[in-house]
Design brief:
Layout (H helix, E strand, L loop, with lengths): L3 H19 L11 H11 L4 H14 L3 H6 L2 H8 L5 H17 L8 H5 L6 H12 L8 H11 L11 H11 L5 H14 L18 H4 L16 E11 L3 E6 L10 E2 L2 E4 L16 E5 L3 E4 L3 E11 L3 H11 L2 E4 L10 H14 L5
The structure holds iron/sulfur cluster.
Iron/sulfur cluster binds next to helix 9 and helix 12.
Length: 361
């Protein structure tokens, strides 16, 4: 195996050369606009490139610059974000935009440290914007880059542990050329995304195979080391959907739980799956219309099992009682589709609710 020390000086140039020939054409690679890079990086934390692209275009079209985002109504920001999940990230984006507009007079920070002060920006995004737009020599450490560094240089420390981050950071710092941190970082990320992929990379055709620690030692499948401590939780939601004159009742989810600030139907959370079977007794004299099957919806750390019971409310006074009891908002059926809400509700609406009421979406 070739010496790593003799490999380092050529590493960056070889990698950048590979990048120039293999990179995907993506809109945020055609720009040095910190706003666009920032938006793209936050979206890409949520989803893969191909799935994130339409969200990126829609976001930039709706909020073309930082001022437009800062001045937008929060519900419009959430609506554009709908489907990406982790709505707190969309909220933080807008808070960050307000910071730039109101605290920094519309001027973006130009350094890694400066970007870390922006709401919702962690070291990954700060490094991406600082190196891509302002050519600061800082490494962008995403999952792809951890994997490439671990395999190439035989770094065996657990990448899931924050304390090991410095080892990867220092290694990347050694490799970044001072005059091309932007290309180097993009190349590392792309190399991990296209060549040094998590499962069964095509090492035979890799430009680094004669130098790669993992390949030479037959440890490709073992690296990087990532020890998972994921505790999954199951939750059981019984939703009560009240309909009255082309309207439904919805309530805003509170802080400190999933879907903060989104609208959903009145909810009774249960302890067990079986409890979803018992039809709820409505508070007022409403007539029962139909119920959904139990829908399973998987989040990063939670499995949600939900059943929706739909009732027709009979009188205005019953309707008002329900509004008060649930501290609810009234949403017209025409606005339901555009209302910022969890994906789970969209699934229910499309599969059960719209067909029942013959609403065509
Ligand atoms: S040889 Fe294989 S493991 Fe090593 S860098 Fe190339 S693709 Fe990744």
């Amino acid at each position: 195996m070739a010496e790593i020390s003799s490999f380092n000086p050529f590493f960056a140039q070889t990698l950048i050369h590979w990048y120039e020939r293999n990179k995907r054409e993506l809109p945020w690679r055609e720009t040095k606009d910190p706003y666009k890079i920032w938006i793209s990086e936050i979206i890409l934390q949520q989803t893969r490139v191909d799935q994130g692209l339409p969200y990126y275009h829609r976001f930039i079209q709706t909020f073309p610059n930082v001022k437009a985002l800062a001045l937008a109504e929060e519900k419009n920001v959430l609506s554009v974000w709908q489907g990406l999940g982790y709505y707190s990230r969309a909220r933080n984006l807008q808070q960050g935009a307000k910071q730039v507009v109101y605290d920094y007079k519309g001027k973006f920070p130009t350094s890694f440290e400066g970007w870390l002060n922006i709401k919702g920006v962690g070291s990954y995004t700060a490094a991406a914007v600082a190196s891509f737009c302002f050519l600061e020599k800082v490494p962008v450490l995403d999952g792809n880059v951890f994997r490439v560094l671990s395999r190439l240089f035989g770094i065996t420390e657990d990448i899931a542990q924050a304390k090991n981050r410095k080892i990867f950071w220092d290694k990347a710092m050694e490799l970044i050329p001072a005059d091309q941190p932007d290309l180097f970082n993009q190349a590392m990320m792309e190399f991990g995304a296209l060549q040094c992929v998590p499962k069964s990379p095509d090492c035979e055709r890799c430009i680094f195979k004669t130098h790669c620690f993992a390949y030479q030692k037959r440890l490709v499948a073992e690296l990087p080391v990532k020890i998972k401590k994921l505790v999954r939780r199951s939750r059981f939601f019984q939703y009560h959907v009240y309909v009255y004159k082309e309207q439904v009742l919805m309530r805003r989810r509170s802080k400190g739980d999933i879907w903060e600030g989104l609208l959903e139907f009145p909810l009774a959370e249960k302890e067990k799956l079986e409890a979803l079977e018992r039809k709820p007794k409505p508070v007022t004299a409403s007539s029962f219309l139909f119920q959904s099957d139990v829908l399973k919806h998987v989040l990063s750390h939670q499995d949600l099992y939900s059943r929706f019971y739909v009732f027709q409310v009979k009188t205005k006074s019953d309707w008002n009682t329900l509004i008060q009891k649930h501290d609810a908002e009234v949403v017209s059926l025409a606005d339901l589709d555009e209302t910022p809400k969890p994906v789970l509700l969209t699934k229910f609406l499309n599969a059960y609710f719209y067909p029942y009421f013959s609403i065509h979406k």
